Amino acid sequence: MWTVATYYAVLLLTVAVAMWRGGPMERWAAYTALFASVCTTVLAPNPNWSHIEYNIFAIDVVALASFWFIALKTNRFWPYWITGWQLIAIFGHLQKLMFSEILARPYALLSMYISYPILFLILYASGSTRRRGNAAA
Questions:
Q1: pLDDT tens profile 18-41
Q2: How far apart are CA 46 and CA 62, in angstroms?
Q3: H-type helices in the chain, by residue range?
Q4: Looking only at Cα atoms, what is the longest distance across the chain?
Q5: Is 37 exposed, middle or buried (0-12, 13-18, 19+ CB in 10 A)?
Q6: What is the value of pTM for the model shown?
Q7: Mean pLDDT of the chain
Q8: What b/e sequence results for 70-86 when a residue is b if at least 16 CB atoms lie within 10 Å of its CB, and e otherwise?
Q9: Which of 30, 32, 100, 113 is the most exposed place for a label (fewest CB within 10 A)?
């Protein structure tokens, strides 16, 4: 329970900082993370991780597409990092699909904890947007 509360606290902080200091791409990335997290909570409230979680996989694919679009629309480098980390989450799902003997715990941990570097990078990008003077980029 505390892990979920901690995650949502970091997520809401990220969205707040992106709204306050970030440019359009930082806000879009934060909203993508918020949308994906809420959808995951609603569509897969208690995943057992013993087999591929198709709902979470589909949400992760949509998030990947959104992050990829951000990377194509900006001249900044941070979107490539979040797109890459999201792609790692996708590969985790594909590995579970191909190799059913992967244990539930590592699959779950990869799927859950890959979000933190994404959120922290959105926080950093949002905080540095105005310093660089390119809020529209």
A1: 999 999 999 999 999 999 999 999
A2: 20
A3: 2-21, 24-43, 54-73, 78-98, 104-113, 115-132
A4: 50
A5: buried
A6: 0.90
A7: 92
A8: bbeebebebbebbbebb
A9: 100
Report the chain's terminal Cα–Cα distance, integer Å: 38
Q: Which residue's structure tokens are 């991780």?
A: 49
Structure tokens at 83: 């797109």
Handedness of CA 62, 121, 40, 17 (dihedral sign): negative
Give me 74's structure tokens: 């900006």
Encode pLDDT of 93-126 as tens digits: 999 999 999 999 999 999 999 999 999 999 999 9
Q: What angle do CA 123, 126, 129 make, to 5 degrees?
A: 145
* Structure-token match 């989450």, residue found: 89
In Å, how far from its chain's centre is CA 34? 8
Residue pair 73/25 in contact (Cβ under 8 Å)? The answer is yes
pLDDT tens-digit map of 58-99: 999 999 999 999 999 999 999 999 999 999 999 999 999 999
Q: For the packed helices 115-132 and 2-21, what is the interaxial angle rounded to 10 degrees?
A: 20
